[in-house]
Amino acid sequence: MNHNLKIYLIAGEPSGDALGARLMRALKDKTNGHVEFFGIGGDTMEKEGLKSLFDISELAIMGLCEVIPSIPRVLKRIRQTVDDIIRLRPDVVISIDSWSFGSRVQKKLRALKTGIPQIHYVAPQVWAWKKKRARTMHKYVDRLLTLLPQEPKYFIPYGMKTDFVGHPVIESPVINGDGKTFRRKYGIDEKQKIICLLPGSRHNEVSRLLPVFLEAAQMLQQQYTDLFFIIPTVKTVAERVKNMLKNSTLPILMVEGEEDRHNAMSAATAAVAASGTVALELAIADVPHIIGYKVAPLTAALVKHFLHIQFVNLSNILLGREIVPELLQERCVAANIVLYLNRFLKQDSFYRYQKEGFRKVRTILGLGRQKPSENAADIILNMIKNQSDS
């Protein structure tokens, strides 16, 4: 390849940022570095060479009630992104995860008939929500790349070219996390049991979940003398977490950055996390955990009406049974969190049941010779080649 390819990436939140960074590495590798990146991403993508059009923390909103006040700002950012794509004329546009923002950009592009190949990476969870979205997606993107093996069957019947590339969690550095190095770095005694508190990467998640997680930590602290609490966080919410910890009397530490996060998980005896990719990382890292989640009451009522699945946690969905307790809405209280963390600390039968489940999850997600990011890169490069040949 003699000229540099121009790849436009749109990642709206930290999970998409991590995915985008791995994809960028794979694309650089497969083009011998003959590639330039443009678009929207976070810290991890910027380290790989992307200069983000704007800070993605502006898009880190979740829940219908939370989104409404941000609509004017988000609409402005959609227009800005489309204008940037038209100006640059990239070889391909790839929206990653965050379909709510990515889809609006993709729809506007499609209406402008640019002829630029359009890809979405990470399927909207139509198996959980309204299946109607699967029928219309082909109108806005040319190709869909999915993380889970059961997803293509929901889109292919409606003319959407769909490929299962594999889940990025199996190439996450969390697998090689170093708990001993983490303890040494922060002077945490080998005898102390570490509990990870992971209250999410969005402001409204942290404000709802962290007070409950801290209350549970306080209750546990009264029962045990050998606990230490770690909050691995991300740049988007670090300042908020810091402020919420100001008056805490707990033996607690907030850490930032991917390396510290993965090393903290490796050192952990147990964890409590917001629902999402982080819970799957904990399963891969073999850390006993529970998930907690709370949204605004109106959002919760609407979710209840539209949600078509038994579980929200991916480990549970993949296995078709609950191995990770799901403490959602009114069940997300400190007493319930303490109940399960106690079971993990005592390593009872439920602890063993969960560990056995994690082994099966790793088998389901670990199949295939190539890394998921490399599979995705191959499909993207083939699309660009076919477009230039035609």
Q: Outline of this structure?
A:
It contains 17 helices and twelve strands. It is an alpha/beta fold.
Descriptive overview:
The protein is built from 17 helices and twelve strands. It is α/β, with parallel strands linked by helices. The radius of gyration is 21 Å and the shape is globular. The protein starts with a strand and ends with a helix. About 1% of the residues have low confidence.
Number of helices: 17
Proportion of residues in β-strands = 15-25%
Share of helix, binned: 40-55%
Structural class by secondary-structure content: alpha/beta
Q: Could you tell me the number of beta strands?
A: 12
Q: How widely separated are the two ends?
A: 17 Å
Backbone shape: globular
pLDDT below 50 for ≥5 consecutive residues: which ranges? 62-66
Q: Could you give a short account of the major beta sheet?
A: 6 strands, parallel
| Secondary-structure element pattern, one letter each | EHEHHHEHEHEHEHEHEHEHEHEHHEHHH
- Report the radius of gyration as a whole number of Å: 21 Å
Main sheet strand line-up:
2-1-3-4-5-6
* Arithmetic mean pLDDT: 89
SSE diagram, text form:
Blueprint: E1 5-11, H1 14-30, E2 35-40, H2 43-47, H3 64-67, H4 71-88, E3 92-96, H5 99-111, E4 118-121, H6 132-136, E5 143-146, H7 152-155, E6 162-164, H8 179-186, E7 193-198, H9 203-223, E8 227-233, H10 238-245, E9 252-256, H11 258-267, E10 268-274, H12 277-284, E11 289-293, H13 297-306, H14 314-319, E12 326-328, H15 334-346, H16 349-365, H17 372-389
Parallel strand pairs: 1-2, 1-3, 3-4, 4-5, 5-6, 7-8, 7-10, 8-9, 10-11, 11-12
Helix pairs in contact: 1-17, 4-5, 8-11, 9-15
